[in-house]
Write a structure and sequence with these properties.
369 residues; mainly beta; 5-stranded antiparallel β-sheet; 3 helices; elongated
Length: 369
Amino acid sequence: MQYDSYTALNVVGADSGVAVLTLYANWKTNVTFDASGGTLTGGITNAEKSIAGQSRGTIPYSVNQTAATGLIGSKDGYNFLEWNTRSDGMGTSITDYGIITGPVTFYAIYYQTDFYPDENLQTFRAPYTGWYSLQCWGGSGSDVINEGQSGWGLGGHGGYVSGQLHLNKGDILYVNVGWGGTAYKNNELRPGHWLTISGTGGDAADIRTNTSLYSRIMVAGGGGSGAAFGPLSCAGGYAGGLTAGGGAKLIYGTNFDTFAPSGATQTSGGRGSNNGRTVYGSFGYGWSDMAGDGWYGGSYSQTTDIWFSASGGSSYVSGFPGCETSVTGIVLTNPQLLSGQDTMVSPDNITEVGHSGNAHARILCISQD
């Protein structure tokens, strides 16, 4: 039994009539858990539960007690990996620490699961050997309108792709995530002055094995920008799918020869026209800022008196029917490919028709070997 006060000892002695009572020292020391920018969650003992919800907390442990805890760290966009004596994960794991002999701090170690827009490639390093779920959402194109006029020219919505891949611990993937087009409202419309406006296309999200575009193993295409001309407006092309949606035409004037831009496919960029010259989106990028990026990018058409919305970029998953196998030789299992006009689940777990907003990527370990 344990006694923590003289009063308790006196009561025991008086009640039992024991003349000699042998007591053993129970030494305590402090063990601190630091959530490393996250929040402490879970816990089994009352002491652990008392610090849940905090970013850092300390619990008294008996000296020579084995290091263990029911607490974990929680951090948005990351999965908890382990407790470690160093914040960079290069110390000793709590599972290997052994017995507690003095004060110690354990830091929550995570691996990144969610990737947000960034101008640079981001790096994922597999924390375990096992199977991983890979997901990408493409960005949507800009919604545009002339102030005081009726109807938005809505941007095309982004696509969604997913698949599963086996990785060894330490394997590296590169993640490219861009932005969605920003809604644009023209506030300078003058009476009798019909101004043409269009925004920007949605960026793609992709996962690749190195820094080259040709090493991409999945791509979620972006949607094309909408367009507005005075009170007229039209929607941008949605992202692929195997083939993306085309742009639409806003007619004003007498030049009807220029064609609306077509959506990107698995083998070519969207086809558009620039004052009579045929132009195409390229591998990875739209022909102009108005078009959506993707496996192949979309396009845009323009003349002096006809205006258009832009087309979307195509998506790609190595292993999906209709998509060629990646030059890396990697084939994803359980591939899925949805266009910007299909129903999907957003990164925030909300049902949507095509992805709206910025591009996004997620890599999550679903089973360990």
